Amino acid sequence: MGVDLGEIIQRKRISLDDLSGKTIAIDAYNALYQFLAVIRGEKGERIKWESIFEG
């Protein structure tokens, strides 16, 4: 998913200092979904925080 902007916008490398004082938005929906899917239990149930720390 997503839009390939490579043909209409030139790529420019910037540093984090260039973003200082600016507001940015990051679309992390797919990454967060994959992370949550990976941390499911063996049967697909949600893992409880207590079980993570019990060893």
What does this structure look like?
With 55 residues, the chain is mostly helical. The longest helix is centred in the middle third of the chain and has 10 residues, at 29-38. The protein has helices at 29-38, 49-53. The radius of gyration is 18 Å and the shape is elongated. It starts with 28 loop residues before the first helix and ends with a helix.
Topology (SSEs and partners):
Elements: H1 29-38, H2 49-53
Portion in helices: 25-40%
Pattern of helices and strands: HH
The protein's oligomeric status is single chain
Mean pLDDT: 81
What is the number of beta strands? 0
Structural class: mainly alpha
| β-sheet strand percentage | under 5%
Radius of gyration: 18 Å
Write a brief caption for the model.
The protein has helices at 29-38, 49-53. It is mostly helical.
Summary keywords:
single chain; 27% helix; 55 residues; mainly alpha
